[in-house]
């Protein structure tokens, strides 16, 4: 996969040089590059923003420097150009899964009060990380890239762990434990030491339902539950 990011602050993407993102690049699974669109200013002062027509608070990013930078990239018909925008559709695990199968993603990070609306003629996706406002588009871009890249089959070693993790089934993961067996009066459930794999799996399924019911009941409305899982939900409702 190839990812290009248009940004005014390339240095903010230092986390891409660490952990799994670094490993993906070293192994040739991911090609990642930032592009400072301040290199294509609209005047000799290096400005890329201006006052909005019709008045209003703050400044808007102008369309020319962003489009000029886009046109410097080696784009194809399959390239997806993604605009960070609070008005965009919410970013989800399903969207991350969809993006992970693409060949080329381009992210455009905003600042100030937003973009000249005409930038939307050059994008394929408007996406928001949530119903709140940040000072920049770099942070949500990094979150989306991390969530997407880790779903590429060659990136995370244990494919089974991806299938089982939170939000893949619209369920939270079951509680997990490691050593010590007892800590300050809290013990690891005995079933996990039973060696009985079917009992362990049943416990994990039930506790995943319990945890989702307690912490994110809204997810249960979207989850495709088995008959047994629906029975557990009814049990928790009676408690």
Describe the protein's architecture and organization.
With 239 residues, this protein is an alpha/beta fold. The strands form 3 sheets. A 5-stranded parallel sheet has the order 2-1-6-5-7, sandwiched between helices. It has a two-stranded antiparallel ribbon with strand order 3-4. It is 33% helix and 17% strand. It has 8 helices and 9 strands.
Concise summary:
This protein is of the alpha/beta class and 239 residues long. 33% of the residues lie in helices and 17% in strands.
Strand order of the largest sheet: 2-1-6-5-7
Strand % is 15-25%
The number of helices is 8
What structural class do helix, strand and pairing data support?
alpha/beta
Q: For the residues shown, what is the average pLDDT?
A: 92
* Total E-strand runs: 9
Largest sheet: 5 strands, parallel
Percent of residues in helices comes to 25-40%
Give a topology summary.
Layout: E1 2-7, H1 19-26, E2 31-36, E3 49-50, E4 60-61, H2 63-72, E5 80-90, H3 93-99, E6 104-108, E7 125-128, H4 138-149, H5 159-164, E8 182-183, E9 186-187, H6 197-215, H7 217-220, H8 227-238
Parallel strand pairs: 1-2, 1-6, 5-6, 5-7
Antiparallel strand pairs: 3-4, 8-9
Helix pairs in contact: 3-4, 6-8
